[in-house]
Specification:
Length: 274
């Protein structure tokens, strides 16, 4: 069995999917399987996948569209290797991404997940923002990082930025179907609650934002984002053993609104939102 299950959940992703797949095949660490789960796409997504001739690629086609959360949970279902890497269908990995993250997980068995700095890129691949949440690489106590993240923002960023142990995923279960905008953030906090976390202070992946990206579509409904966040806060405060206080909740509520509006402004200035 390979070391890593790389899972790409995709719906109508024909535009950038080939670039994303190629960024996986270009890895210097070759011991992986690439599972692409098509969520009943109506474009040429399946044809793009089939244009690649690599035995490590496996295509799974859902008979019906099971929604974003359902397809993310399908990734957890079909990925059975020791390490897991979810990858959005328009994001890109640096060629040494797996090599550096596997090295951390191999050397530190107490670490359940590892993440890095990242670039934000536009439709053409131009870098429009650099993100490094900390000044140096290192291991974090999971609960300490979770509390800090809850108060401020999602340090782990998008699913494409995180490699995690399959065993840790099994311990915390599936993505929460009740959540939407904060779906992955909740999952990372749950993972932090049961393991240590390692941050690599390098740019190891690129998060693509375009007019058709899920992020751009989500930010068009700011009211729904705040409603989702209210549920997110309730779940984190009442269900996770993180030692959160009412002061933490208040700080989170203030900062999530500031950051949400700042993201909308950024997307509008960059013309990702008309």
């Amino acid at each position: 069995m390979p070391k890593i299950s790389v899972c790409i959940p995709v719906y109508n992703g024909e535009t950038y999917l080939a670039q994303t797949i190629q960024s996986v095949l270009n890895q210097t660490y070759p011991d992986f399987e690439l599972i692409i789960i098509d969520n009943a796409s109506t474009d040429h997504t399946v044809s793009v996948v089939r244009s690649f001739d690599d035995p490590r690629i496996r295509l799974i086609q859902n008979e019906t569209n099971v929604g974003m959360v359902g397809n993310w949970n399908n990734c957890l279902k079909y990925g059975t290797c020791e390490y897991m890497q979810l990858l959005c269908a328009d994001d890109l990995l640096t060629s040494d991404n797996f090599q550096k993250k596997v090295e951390i997980l191999d050397n530190y068995p107490e670490v359940g997940m590892v993440f890095s700095g990242s670039h934000v890129i536009n439709e053409t691949g131009k870098v429009v923002m650099n993100r490094r949440p900390f000044r140096s690489s290192g291991m974090w106590d999971g609960k300490k990082l979770a509390r800090r993240s809850f108060r401020n923002h999602n340090y782990n960023a998008e699913p494409s930025n995180v490699m995690f142990r399959k065993s840790t995923s099994l311990e915390i279960g599936a993505f929460d179907p009740d959540l939407w905008f904060t779906l992955d953030w909740n999952y990372w906090l749950r993972m932090c609650s049961v393991s240590k976390v390692y941050y690599i202070n390098e740019y190891l992946y690129s998060f693509r934002v375009s007019t058709t990206s899920e992020t751009a579509q989500l930010l068009k409904t700011i009211g729904k984002i705040f409603a989702d966040d209210k549920l997110f806060v309730d779940k984190c405060y009442n269900q996770l053993n993180l030692g959160l206080t009412k002061g933490d909740v208040r700080m989170h509520q203030i900062k999530i609104r500031i950051r949400a509006y700042m993201r909308v402004v950024f997307m509008q200035v960059r013309r990702f939102i008309p």
